[in-house]
Design brief:
- The chain is an alpha+beta fold.
- The chain has a single domain, classed as Yope Regulator, Chain: A (2-Layer Sandwich), CATH 3.30.1460.
- The protein has four helices and six strands, in the order ααββββαββα.
- The two termini are 12 Å apart.
- 22% of the residues are buried.
Length: 165
């Protein structure tokens, strides 16, 4: 796994075994707390986790408690007015990515008065274990970072389109 965020997977797994005693939302929040992850918001329904990236940027992972399901979400920085035409090449790229990846799917989300490209993964709480929790968060972060890199290259007109990798 090519994770570019500032934490060790080995430390993560050791803390996960020690502090996640059950498959409930509170157990996962306890783990995040003892891991010194930065909480931007934390209550029984939603948790916003901020991650510093080695490149100097940051990513926010939104974890929503749906009872028997947990939703993980990362919003991109790409915003479009509701009446603005979305870039066809970017939308096509993300639709192709949806068919290629195991974790998460891209979609267009309405946030306030703009449309935002976001990636989401939905997991059943009963199947959420240490490995899946880490894999989902890491994959969504990496996928969103790849997307931002590709969009930056597209907008600088260095090429037509490129595959996320």
């Amino acid at each position: 796994m090519s994770l570019d965020i500032l934490f060790s997977e080995e430390i993560f797994k050791n803390k996960m075994e020690k502090f996640c005693s059950g498959n409930d939302f509170e157990s996962w929040l306890r783990f995040c707390d003892v891991s010194d992850w930065r909480f931007l918001k934390n209550d029984e329904d939603i948790c916003l986790l901020g991650f510093a990236i080695n490149s100097g940027s940051s990513v926010v992972v939104i974890v929503g408690n749906g009872g028997e399901i947990v939703q993980f979400l990362v919003q991109s920085s790409q915003e479009f007015k509701k009446d603005e035409k979305l870039p066809d090449n970017v939308s096509t790229l993300l639709l192709k990515r949806n068919s290629e990846q195991l974790f998460g799917f891209w979609f267009i989300e309405e946030v306030e008065d703009v449309n935002v490209y976001s990636i989401k993964h939905i997991a059943q709480m009963r199947f959420l274990d240490q490995t899946l929790f880490l894999d989902v968060i890491c994959n969504l972060i990496n996928e969103s970072l790849d997307f931002e890199r590709v969009v930056k290259n597209i907008s600088s007109n260095t090429f037509e389109c490129e595959n996320l990798s």
